[in-house]
Design goal:
The chain is an all-alpha fold. It has eight helices and no strands. The chain has helices spanning 4-24, 27-44, 47-64, 67-83, 87-103, 107-123, 127-142, 166-173. The longest helix is centred in the first third of the chain and has 21 residues, at 4-24.
């Protein structure tokens, strides 16, 4: 997995790509690049920069009509807000991303948004809601869909693994 130093390379690459897509006027590719840049900033712990880029990605994704990118940026913003303990706003972003992912449909993104939203609900102390969201993810799996879960709640970038979250244990138990 990439370490903190490698995220600096991601930022440089994405910043250059942002300039190129802006010059070409390709809003869909620009939105995806802004999402990637926001995610790299998030991994660096630069939360304000991450929020700024992800807000741009959400707006540009919506303007371009590339709904998957808009949904991905909403889920990415939810992750930043969860790390900032703004669970209400995080849940709102996850739900908005989930609605778009369902409409497209993009089942992998649906499962990602459900699992991420469940974690935000759990951290907010809304355990029944978290269990319900995990149940919806489980239903999606039962219909043959796949779900990727990071037991630590997000990717671990450098060893050792981050501590596992409660939802992972709940899913394994059920």
């Amino acid at each position: 997995p990439p370490g903190p130093a490698q995220h600096g390379g991601h930022v440089l690459h994405a910043s250059r790509a942002q300039e190129l897509w802006e010059a070409l006027g390709n809003l869909g590719s620009l939105a995806q690049t802004l999402n990637n840049l926001g995610t790299a900033y998030h991994q660096q712990g630069r939360f304000a920069a991450a929020q700024e880029r992800l807000a741009e990605a959400i707006a540009k994704g919506g303007m371009s009509g590339v709904r998957r990118t808009e949904a991905m940026a909403l889920v990415s913003m939810g992750a930043v807000l969860t790390d900032l303990d703004d669970f209400s706003s995080a849940i709102d972003h996850y739900e908005r991303g989930l609605a778009i992912a369902r409409a497209i449909p993009d089942h992998a993104l649906v499962c990602d948004a459900l699992a991420a939203s469940a974690e935000a609900h759990r951290l907010a102390g809304k355990l029944a809601d978290a269990r319900g969201l995990l149940g919806r993810a489980r239903e999606s799996l039962a219909s043959g869909r796949q779900l990727l879960v990071f037991p630590e709640g997000t990717r671990t970038n450098t060893p050792p693994l981050n501590p596992f979250k409660g939802n992972f244990a709940l899913m394994a138990k059920q």
